[in-house]
Amino acid sequence: MKLHHTKRDREFTRGAMGGRRSAMMLLASGIAISLLAGCSSSASEERVVIQKPDKEINVITPEKKPVEEAVEVDRIDKFEGVRGMDWLTESEIIISRENKERPPITVEGEKRYPLNLFAYDLNTGKERLLVADENNKHANFAVLSPSKAYMFYKMNIEESAYAYILNLKTGEKKQVSEELVPIRDGVWDGDDTVVFAGIPGQVFAAHPDRNTEKLLSDAGRAMNPVMSQGVLYYTDMLTLKAYQPKSGKTSTISAKVENVMPSPDGNQLAIVKMTGDTERTLVITDLKGNVKKTLSTGTQIFGVSWSPDGTKLAYNLIDEAENGVKGIVVANASTGKTTFATIDVPYASDPVAWSPSGKKLVASTFINDDKGNRVVTYVIKLK
């Protein structure tokens, strides 16, 4: 699909964010997601026979082509110096950025301004401090529960962190890991449970209203845990496994799997498989690992996320082949049709996050150019 871009940039400063925000308006003839709609048996070729006294006439009606609806990218807003991670409301996102109003902290022997978590209003440019740094620790990772009532976040010391849950209504926070854990993982299963990894082989389940459970304590090299409908999925040496906490049974689903993300209804799995030494393929499978749809193939595929209604997926596709591109892709889960929503995101730092309506995306990446090394966030609005 040909991409036609029309850019309109503007610079301004809002609140304490600083940096530059560029708004790029894409024309209706620009990037579009072709969604296949309404295919049925009536769309097939039909033959009608007309009988006449002296002959028989065959009338063939042409095959009806499926109707395509274009879901287009309406607008892309770019924010420099902030890392967008999730949506609090349709107009408010969770960001992490340096807080220059706080005293510097020591990181790897250097004094740096601490990273804090804020809620940022896209309409007004105003922001609210949610979590400040504490005891020389950054607040630099967050993911919200489905109802947006709770925020799971981590306070990190370099490459390790402690995990917490924040009640966004009361402001009460609760530490849910007693030991250091990796700094960038955590997936909610409803509002009641969030799972995250510990040291290799360990997986924890934390809850807003009760103690943290250790679901797995010695599960090989258990990585990338995610829970859906009470079933824990994880990879162990590139083997996708499913663990049933109630029965204690573990089953093997598929080999050569790097990552998995269940659909919102828990009936399908989006799986990133290794299909070559330098090739990854994103597929949709049933719960037994049987492939139903192939979406994309590239060198790397990161940050897979289902839309709230389960009809689409967004992810970061990296193709290092000649003429390959890097960016955020949106795919139709039923037809497999894909399009690039933006080609400005080479390596996403977090899973792509959908707004509650499923009409917006937030994605962040780190850029190193003549301006230096910095984080950039994109807010993508779909028509």
Automatic annotation (TrEMBL):
Gene3D superfamilies: TolB, C-terminal domain (2.120.10.30). The lineage of its organism: Bacteria, Bacillati, Bacillota, Bacilli, Bacillales. Coiled coil: none annotated. It comes from Paenibacillus curdlanolyticus YK9. Residues 247-347 form the Lipoprotein LpqB C-terminal domain. Pfam families: Gmad1. InterPro entries: 6-blade_b-propeller_TolB-like, LpqB_C. Keywords: Lipoprotein. The keyword Lipoprotein applies. This is Putative lipoprotein. The keyword Lipoprotein applies.
